[in-house]
Inverse folding.
């Protein structure tokens, strides 16, 4: 916590660099991506990385790294960006994503789905990309449920060994009483 306070205090002393919150960084990334504005995306990447370095909570750091990776991906795809710079941006984004997934591998599936939505936004609207990914997940879920259901139909839940053992116990008890 003290580290965040010191960083925020240092940022307020820098001329022209106001302290940004996570919503401010997100709005910069969204504006830069929507307008294909190199300068805005570069600033958003720097801000997200500074926020990640100053974050006290792992969740905040992970969100900032994801935001930085997304902005770097969008910047790397712009026409005016040199191939060498584009490659460097994508390598840094990959490093950030690997760090996030390494820290919390349980949520890697959700991030993959989100990445699929973002990838599809390059060729279609966001809502249709989300709908398409959701439909694909629903179809996969239905197929898996049907496979599980058919597998359960083949498995006998009748406790055959228990029934045989109880019948044997009944026969033994009848012998003892007669």
């Amino acid at each position: 916590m003290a580290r965040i306070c010191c960083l925020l205090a240092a940022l307020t002393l820098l001329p022209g660099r106001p302290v940004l919150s996570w919503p401010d960084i997100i709005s910069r990334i969204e504006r830069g991506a929507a307008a294909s504005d190199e300068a805005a995306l570069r600033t958003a990447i720097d801000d997200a990385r500074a926020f990640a370095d100053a974050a006290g909570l792992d969740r905040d750091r992970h969100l900032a790294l994801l935001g930085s990776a997304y902005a770097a991906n969008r910047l790397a795809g712009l026409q005016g960006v040199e191939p060498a710079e584009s490659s460097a941006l994508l390598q840094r984004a990959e490093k950030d994503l690997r760090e996030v997934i390494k820290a919390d591998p349980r949520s890697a599936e959700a991030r993959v789905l989100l990445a699929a939505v973002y990838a599809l936004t390059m060729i279609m609207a966001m809502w249709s990309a989300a709908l398409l990914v959701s439909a694909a997940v629903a179809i996969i879920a239905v197929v898996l449920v049907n496979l599980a259901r058919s597998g359960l139909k083949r498995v006998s839940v009748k406790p055959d060994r228990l029934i045989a053992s109880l019948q044997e116990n009944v026969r033994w008890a009848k012998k003892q009483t007669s």
